[in-house]
Write a structure and sequence with these properties.
By secondary structure, this protein is mainly alpha-helical. Helix content is 73%, strand content 1%. It contains 11 helices and 2 strands, in the order H-H-H-H-H-H-H-H-E-E-H-H-H. The protein has a two-stranded antiparallel ribbon. The protein is globular. The N and C termini lie far apart (56 Å).
């Protein structure tokens, strides 16, 4: 409430809530594709589609609840939280003159400024970052649980052993990202960037879409699980049922894979262009 009542917050609300369709086609169809690509990439990232987080949570749902019903709840809650975050951040950006696309400063600079102007601001600021820490940990737990479940199911390990072995492996594999802030800060992958940018590129532009494509093809192709078996599993239990008509089946089987391939290709295009410039310049 405090963010939307700040001086100048109305400009932030207008920026956030009033669509500017001219920005989608102002420079041709390329801008529209960029917007579609950004939206699909964000959907992959925020729901961790393709790297097992949603898959592992879905596997723990009891058979008495249908998967489409639980999926709808997750999407609605995720969208609600995102909208509420936008109502806080964007008005505050315009009120304090912070660029809306300035990245981490939106959270670590803008919001503390808002809390300073509120009664008991230090208390609310502390609680906010505490809750944000819990949110980050919940994401980490989701990703790690997929790894734990894989090792326990594949090699029949007890959880303690899986935690011990994977904990060491994850620590070692995390060292490049950790050292990329200091000792290896000068290390740059040509055409991509520093170590953090490279690892983000590997996950966001490769693992997420490729993993999602593999799941999709497995669930819709006869050589995999097959669409009928997928429907039977998804619709088991009470709740919303998955639409199984021909149009939906064709969309999921052919249109969605094509869109994911588009996301994958567009994620690589800037890198390939930079590599091309580097090769031609040699």
């Amino acid at each position: 409430m405090r963010a939307v009542t700040l001086p100048g917050a109305s400009a932030g609300l207008a920026f956030y809530l009033i669509p500017d369709f001219s920005a989608l086609v102002g420079n041709g169809i390329g801008d529209l594709w960029e917007a579609v690509y950004a939206a699909m990439g964000q959907a992959f990232f925020t729901l961790s589609i393709g790297i097992g987080a949603m898959m592992i949570f879905g596997s723990y749902i009891d058979k008495d609840r249908s998967l489409p019903g639980e999926t709808l709840r997750v999407c609605l809650i995720d969208t609600f939280v995102a909208i509420m975050a936008g109502l806080i951040i964007f008005p505050a950006c315009f009120a304090f003159g912070v660029e809306p696309g300035s990245g981490p400063s939106l959270v670590f600079i803008t919001l503390p400024s808002v809390f300073e102007m509120m009664p008991f601001g230090q208390l609310w600021c502390t609680l906010f970052f505490l809750f944000m820490t819990f949110a980050a940990l919940s994401t980490v737990i989701a990703v790690f649980e997929a790894i734990m479940a894989f090792t326990m199911d594949s090699w029949r390990w007890e959880r303690r052993r899986a935690v011990a072995v994977n904990g060491v492996a994850i620590f070692v594999l995390s060292l490049p990202c950790l050292l990329g802030f200091n000792v290896w800060s000068d290390v740059v992958v040509p055409g991509i960037g520093d170590i953090q940018t490279f690892e983000d590129f590997v996950v966001s532009n490769n693992l997420l879409p490729i993993g999602g494509l593999c799941y999709l093809l497995f669930c819709t192709r006869k050589k995999g699980w097959g669409f009928d078996k997928f429907l039977a599993e998804a619709d088991a239990g009470q709740g919303l049922k998955f639409p199984g008509g021909r149009v939906v089946r064709a969309y999921i089987s052919y249109v969605l894979p094509l869109l994911i391939v588009v996301v994958l290709v567009m994620g690589w295009l800037p890198v390939l262009q930079k590599w091309g410039v580097m090769i031609l310049g040699m």
